Amino acid sequence: MDRLSGLDASFLYLETPAQLMHVCGLFVLDPSTMPEPYSFARVQRQIEDAVRDVPTFTRKLRRVPLGLDHPVWVPDRSFDIERHVHRLALPTPGGYEELTSLTAHLAGLPLDRSRPLWEMWVIEGYADGRVVVFSKMHHATVDGVSGSNLISHLCSLSPTDAPLQLEEPQPHGREAGPMELLGRGVLTNLTKPVAVAKLVSPTTQLVSKTVGRARAGTAMAAPLTAPRTSFNGTITGHRSIGFVDIDLEDVREVKNATGTTVNDVVLALAGGALRSYLEERGELPDESLLATVPVSVHSSTRRTSGANKVSALFTKLATDLEDPLERLAELSERNKHAKDHHNAISADSLQDWAEFAAPRTFGLAVRAYAGLGLADRLPVAHNLVISNVPGPPVPLYLCGARIEALYPLGPVFHGAGLNLTVLSNAGQLHVGAIACRESVPDPDALVKRFPAELATLKAAVAAKDLAVPLRRRRGPRAKAAPDA
């Protein structure tokens, strides 16, 4: 029996019929590399063999009586692979439009909380004989890094190899009775005042230091300062999806020539694509869009339990700047400040405070926020979430089929109905966009701008003498207001 961490449980409490907290992956597979002819039954059986001894795939939630503590994981004694791995056929002609429409529908369906919180849809009939696997895993079970590791566990390095093994076997936890769960819940609540007291002093110091950074102009961008766009309101449960590929080597070429980072370049591409997209729709705000960027703290946290070991920083995307090099320089400078600011904050700060998320109170607050339409009335906390997840540097195979592409898709929120996630895979960057359909009905029109933005940035780099690292060009347009 494993208790969910406060951060893991928070993703359960955040969930509503419109605000679904699962993460998705869209795998495009080439079945011609499979040792035997493609068969759904064989794929389903191989996935069952791979997940059988991995608790993340075979455990389910159990609530603590009276909601006194976060839920616990218990083994699903009736685990059945047929409840998790399903088969679908893509409508003709089986192209991009049909695939994004079908997967958007699947992304808008909630996971069944009476079972392990994941499912896969094997979709046949995609272009050129490809097979697509669309996976869904609840954010309470994985973050970007742990999700990538679990996916790797299902894959192999060649068509005939066995799937990669986890570093250590993960034992299944035991089940606990209602009275034991109730007792643990009471004990947890009795110790909360002491735990809160321990956090007050470091949090007060953090606020003081943040104010100092803001005055010096070296703080990360502040939330609640984002301009409003069409995707910054109350969302529905309908989803829309788009995806595209860009060459990782081209991104590295720009990175090396400008003295920036891959993440800087990715954010600059996102900023350029969003600027162009909003400008075409006649709603480009004068102020820059503000993005939340999840940051993995797996290597720095003191916590050993829990799936989500993540923090976040805020950064402006320089969508108010037309010149691509100026945008990249601005982002690079802001990101350095944001990273320095983030690194000065305890890696466990978010997880520590999340422990006090009361199930009933948290859930009620989320439902009230959605039901009252407060996302349409209150200041915009942030415009969107952008994630950059490291993936495998070499080709991987799922059930013997080569993974040609893997598009990650994160959750969207009331007030931020657009999510962009980028994953590196064997020399490519796979860009996935998911949104509330009513807010962004055409996310493909957004992500399809990434290749053009990269080409424009490469051309600008080639045309400019960059013998020294890129620096932000200061001028009347370049002056920015303090972030916090």
Automatic annotation (TrEMBL):
<comment type="pathway">
    <text>Glycerolipid metabolism; triacylglycerol biosynthesis.</text>
</comment>
<dbReference type="InterPro" id="IPR023213">
    <property type="entry name" value="CAT-like_dom_sf"/>
</dbReference>
<comment type="pathway">
    <text>Lipid metabolism.</text>
</comment>
<dbReference type="GO" id="GO:0051701">
    <property type="term" value="P:biological process involved in interaction with host"/>
</dbReference>
<dbReference type="GO" id="GO:0001666">
    <property type="term" value="P:response to hypoxia"/>
</dbReference>
<dbReference type="InterPro" id="IPR009721">
    <property type="entry name" value="O-acyltransferase_WSD1_C"/>
</dbReference>
<keyword id="KW-0808">Transferase</keyword>
<dbReference type="InterPro" id="IPR004255">
    <property type="entry name" value="O-acyltransferase_WSD1_N"/>
</dbReference>
<dbReference type="GO" id="GO:0006071">
    <property type="term" value="P:glycerol metabolic process"/>
</dbReference>
<protein>
    <recommendedName>
        <fullName>Diacylglycerol O-acyltransferase</fullName>
        <ecNumber>2.3.1.20</ecNumber>
    </recommendedName>
</protein>
<dbReference type="Pfam" id="PF06974">
    <property type="entry name" value="WS_DGAT_C"/>
</dbReference>
<dbReference type="GO" id="GO:0005886">
    <property type="term" value="C:plasma membrane"/>
</dbReference>
<keyword id="KW-0319">Glycerol metabolism</keyword>
<feature type="domain" description="O-acyltransferase WSD1 C-terminal">
    <location>
        <begin position="308"/>
        <end position="458"/>
    </location>
</feature>
<keyword id="KW-0443">Lipid metabolism</keyword>
<keyword id="KW-0444">Lipid biosynthesis</keyword>
<feature type="domain" description="O-acyltransferase WSD1-like N-terminal">
    <location>
        <begin position="4"/>
        <end position="266"/>
    </location>
</feature>
<comment type="similarity">
    <text>Belongs to the long-chain O-acyltransferase family.</text>
</comment>
<dbReference type="GO" id="GO:0019432">
    <property type="term" value="P:triglyceride biosynthetic process"/>
</dbReference>
<dbReference type="GO" id="GO:0004144">
    <property type="term" value="F:diacylglycerol O-acyltransferase activity"/>
</dbReference>
<dbReference type="Pfam" id="PF03007">
    <property type="entry name" value="WS_DGAT_cat"/>
</dbReference>
<keyword id="KW-0012">Acyltransferase</keyword>
<dbReference type="InterPro" id="IPR045034">
    <property type="entry name" value="O-acyltransferase_WSD1-like"/>
</dbReference>
<dbReference type="InterPro" id="IPR014292">
    <property type="entry name" value="Acyl_transf_WS/DGAT"/>
</dbReference>
<dbReference type="GO" id="GO:0071731">
    <property type="term" value="P:response to nitric oxide"/>
</dbReference>
